[in-house]
Amino acid sequence: MDRTLTYPIVVLDFEATALALTSYPIEVGVAILDEPGAQIRTWSSLIKPDLRWDIDAQWDPDAERIHGISRWELREGKSAQHVMTELNGLIPAGATAWCDGGPYDAYWLRTLEQAAGVASSFGLADLGMVLRGDGQVLERYLAASSGQPRPHRAGADAALICWAIAAAI
Q: Is there a domain that residue 1 lies in?
């Protein structure tokens, strides 16, 4: 699994019940840029809570205000198994999906995999780690992403991150 910022650029982003390592993923988004100048492809889905998840105990009203997703809307979400199958179909096997949430995104992906009974066929890497390793790329990434409003919806956020990575490399 390649852990460098190269094409295709794949970004994975989650929205969750709270910003905590005990919370649950409620939306996932992917953005993929195959080559310079290509169109960024995006996909996202609400995640229907698994019956084993205690959503009420982990629901943070502040998180809801940020992402704007209500518990009611999650009834329209897809099952964890459906979402993991879609992710494995969209993200090339063995590819690295970049995330900006570090341990949170990794936790939410594991939580989704466990609920689905389906392992990801791709790797997940913390974008911050690789950006901190190259000052020039970090500087270009920050310049590209500064001033860009984050809608805090998984698909749109993944697309913005993907665009900023492309501008940086």
A: no
Dist. CA 27–CA 7, nearest whole Å: 25
Least confident of 4-8, 12-16, 75-79, 118-122: 4-8
The type of residue at 58 is: Q
What is the reported pLDDT for 58?
Answer: 95
Q: State residue 133 phi and psi, 5-degree precision.
A: -85, -10
Structural domain harbouring 78:
9-168
* Res 2 pLDDT > 60: no
Q: Could you tell me the two tokens for 131?
A: 């950006």
Give me the mean pLDDT over the 65-69 stretch. 96
Question: Does the model's pTM come out above 0.70?
Answer: yes
Number of domains in the chain: 1
Q: Does residue 4 belong to any structural domain of this protein?
A: no
Kindly tell me the burial class for residue 94, based on how many C-beta atoms sit within 10 Å of its own C-beta (0-12, 13-18, 19 or more).
Answer: exposed
For the cut 90, the answer to whether the pLDDT of residue 43 exceeds it is yes
CA distance 65 to 154: 15
- What's 66's domain CATH number? 3.30.420.10
Candidates 49, 131, 116; CA nearest to 85 is 116
First-residue to last-residue Cα distance in the chain: 19
